[in-house]
Amino acid sequence: MRAILTWHSIDSSGSPISVSPEEFRSQLDWLARDAVRVVPLSELLALPPEADAVTLTFDDGFANVATEAVPALEERGWAACLFVVTAQVGGRAEWPGGQLVPGLPLLDWESLGLLMSRGFEVGSHSRRHPRLPACVDPVLENELAGSAEEISGRLGRRPEAFAYPYGAFDARSSAAVAAAYRWGCTTELRRLGPADSAARLPRIDAWYLRGRALERRWGSSSLRRWLRWRRALRAIRRAAV
Description:
Layout: E1 2-7, E2 9-10, E3 18-19, H1 21-33, E4 37-38, H2 41-46, E5 53-60, H3 64-75, E6 81-84, H4 109-117, E7 121-124, H5 137-155, E8 161-163, H6 171-180, E9 183-185, E10 204-205, H7 221-240
Parallel strand pairs: 1-5, 1-10, 2-3, 4-5, 5-6, 6-7, 8-9
Helix pairs in contact: 1-3, 5-6
């Protein structure tokens, strides 16, 4: 089973976008136990659908990723892609939804550059973390191309991947992402399929891979049923809002 996994903050607050450091290490142990390969996104997409492989990603660029996640990853020789909100780099998560983990700092450009030198990738999560379908065309252009230019100017490498803020997209915004980036990552809770659009790649939020989920083998029918069940519950909750 191929999949893109994503985390946000690695902390013990219990927020809906947090995974504790202990749980995070358990998840890495689970992947290692089941001999799941950890590879960059370009390599993952080139593998056959039956391969047991993942790409690891982190949204928002919280500073605790460097202190809590990176050491655990480097112990295993693994790296990840960090999707950053470029106008907030070095600041705090000051956007709607950022209040879920109030006061937590974000990585600065120097730290991001250091992580890149150690094999981590930096992708874009927009400039200011808006819902892209609500952006008029000039704002959408600034959020996409503008954030890519900031990353390129600060770190010397233009990002190839983009993660949709809140997972929100429509036909117009995904077409704009396809024009600006090689890949676009959603928050659709499922494995990669052979027919997935490069601009709308699904990801599995690791928040749903805690506790009893780790009793299931990677790629098993049991795990796939678990993800389908969690996806259905999430859809019901969103429809009720």
